[in-house]
Design a protein that fits this description.
The structure is a single chain. The protein is mainly α and 337 residues long. The chain is elongated. The chain has 13 helices and four strands. Helix 4 crosses helix 7, helix 4 crosses helix 10 and helix 9 packs antiparallel against helix 10. The structure holds protoporphyrin IX containing FE (HEM). Protoporphyrin IX containing FE binds next to helix 3, helix 4, helix 6, helix 7 and helix 9.
């Protein structure tokens, strides 16, 4: 009898085990798809899949520190790693292609009447100093900024981790510190040349006649022609935009939220890349694109025939001011206009 009871106990035990397993299987299968974000064992991936964000509780007053992942962060990352790179590649490479094709088609714009041998002061020493200070800072800011956008996919595989990290650190220091002389240069350019850069009727005529760069025409212009006025306003407006957004990025969260920082970075990146493309065109015209142009910012003096062909109205004003026989070495107090 005792044996019988013992066997019965095993059988009942076995049935109970099977029954428990049978109950457990549907229980696992019917796990709710809703998860409890505050449960202690919740998995980060589940949380992200369902809520699209990972956020915790913190005991410090800085609310934004509780957000680890959010949809806006992913959109921003996509912008930074995909969209901005496409924008940069299209505008910068596109501009280089346009300039090469244009050069092959048009060649250098020559001084058609040849050099006269007489020069006239175009930019004084202070103007040239401000120009080269701003230009040098711009080139270094552009290269160090492009490293942030394109360095990882382009340079990292070439340089390796150590060298890329060292270069990027130096590039970042340069980007931060040279922003100050650059911003001062933009302000100085604004004040120094504003009088000569207000658009007027002569500019409409200049544009209608292709600015003399497309054909062989020489439309009249005062000290700055419509193309140069365009460059001036790109530098002033672009410079102010990159400076404001750049300082927002450099001093994070002073009056800005995460969304504000992301917006500042998007504007900074896009404006900087368009700015770089525009400056490539400016550098082209100032060097291989036009004979005699570089001298204006190099020695500060240009040939009379160059001035006659490209800035006739300005030359006439200067001649009236200083007399026709004088080789004008005096810096101009006020720009013509
Ligand atoms: C006052 C002037 C400027 C300031 C204060 C400034 C500041 C900054 C800061 C703080 C960053 C973010 C760096 C980081 O993420 O670690 C940045 C990025 C960048 N800057 Fe500037 N910058 C200035 C001018 C310029 C100029 C003139 C250019 C180029 C023409 C430029 C091009 C860029 C580029 C391409 C990036 C990277 C954008 C990205 O991929 O996210 N910056 N800048």
């Amino acid at each position: 009898m005792a044996m019988l009871f013992a066997r019965l106990r095993y059988v009942v035990g076995a049935f109970a085990l099977v029954w428990l397993v049978a109950l457990a299987v549907p229980a696992v299968a019917q796990q709710p798809t809703q998860i409890n974000p505050t449960a202690s064992s919740v998995k980060e991936q589940d949380l992200l899949r369902q809520l699209q964000r990972v956020e915790g509780r913190i005991s410090i007053p800085d609310e934004k520190a509780s957000v680890l992942e959010q949809p806006e962060g992913r959109s921003w990352r996509r912008f930074h790693e995909v969209t901005l790179r496409w924008i940069g590649a299209i505008v910068i490479l596109g501009m280089l292609v346009v300039l090469v094709v244009f050069y092959l088609w048009r060649g250098m714009v020559r001084i058609e009447s040849g050099r006269s041998g007489r020069t006239i002061v175009r930019f004084n020493a202070f103007e040239r100093f401000v120009h080269w200070l701003t230009a040098t800072c711009f080139v270094i800011l552009a290269l160090s900024g492009l490293n942030i956008t394109f360095g990882k996919p382009l340079l990292l595989p070439l340089l390796g981790l150590e060298a890329f990290a060292a270069w990027s650190q130096w590039a970042k220091y340069l980007h931060n510190y040279l922003s100050f002389p650059f911003a001062i240069g933009v302000i100085a350019i604004f004040l120094m040349w504003i009088a000569g850069n207000i658009p007027n009727r002569v500019d409409v005529e200049w544009f209608k006649r292709g600015g003399g760069i497309v054909g062989h025409d020489h439309p009249p212009a005062y000290r700055f022609n419509a193309g140069q006025k365009g460059i001036y306003w790109i530098v002033v407006i672009g410079g102010v935009a990159v400076a404001i957004t750049g300082y927002i990025l450099m001093f994070p969260f002073y009056g800005t939220t995460i969304a504000g920082m992301q917006l500042a970075q998007i504007v900074h990146g896009i404006v900087a890349l368009l700015f770089t493309a525009a400056m490539l065109a400016h550098i082209y015209i100032g060097t291989i694109g036009m004979e005699g142009a570089f001298e204006a910012m190099g020695t500060g003096e240009v040939d009379h025939n160059w001035a006659k062909e490209h800035h006739r109205l300005w030359l006439e004003q200067e001649m009236a001011r200083t007399g026709p026989n004088e080789s004008q070495r005096q810096p101009m107090a006020t720009p013509a206009e």
